[in-house]
Each structure stands twice: as structure tokens, then as C-alpha cells.
Amino acid sequence: PYVWGGTNLNKGVDCSGFTQGIYKRFDIELNRTSYMQALDGRTIPKSELRSGDLIFFDTNGVNRGRISHVGVYVGDGEFIHSDMTKGISIAKLDNSYYKRNYVKSVRVPGT
Length: 111
Description:
Blueprint: E1 7-8, E2 12-13, H1 15-24, H2 34-37, E3 42-44, E4 54-57, E5 69-75, E6 78-83, E7 87-92, H3 96-101, E8 102-107
Antiparallel strand pairs: 1-2, 3-8, 4-5, 4-8, 5-6, 6-7
């Protein structure tokens, strides 16, 4: 389930706790918060996304480019993330909400 500040993949995670936990399973260390995870790799164009890349969003209302949410791209225009209402779920990157709030994508070394 979604848990604010959560870092346990079995008991509950927030978005950055989820991505941190997933990457840890592959021996890749990420920072704890979404805005710090955005610094953990090389920025890539949306058109070059591949499975395992991190995708960042500004979900604080108007998109001002302030990172507040992160997910992992899984391919075919979709990403997996910890959603406040649905828990761990898959969403479409071209969904109007995520399209409007997209900030950047990052490829982390080792992926």
C-alpha cells in the first residue's frame, strides 16, 4: 500500500521509497527523496526512455518543474509507481495528468 514516508516494500511505500526499494534489489543505491533521485543519473529525453528509467513529475498543482513524484518506466508508454490512492499501480505516460505534470527522465548508472 501507499504509506507517506514508507520504505518497506512489504508494509508500504511512498513513491520514492518504492523506487529506492526496487533499485536496491538490483544493488543500485538511490537517494531517499524524489527530488534527490532526479540527481542520481543522467537526464535523458522522453523519446529515449527505456525500461528501468526514472520518470519525474511535479504534482503540486501547477507544473513549475519542482519534482514531487517519481515512477519507473516499464515500456510501451507505461510506468509503475506508488500512487496515493491506488498503491502500487501502472499508469500511462500519455495520460493527460502525467503529460501535464512531467518534468524529466533520468537513466541511473547500472540500469
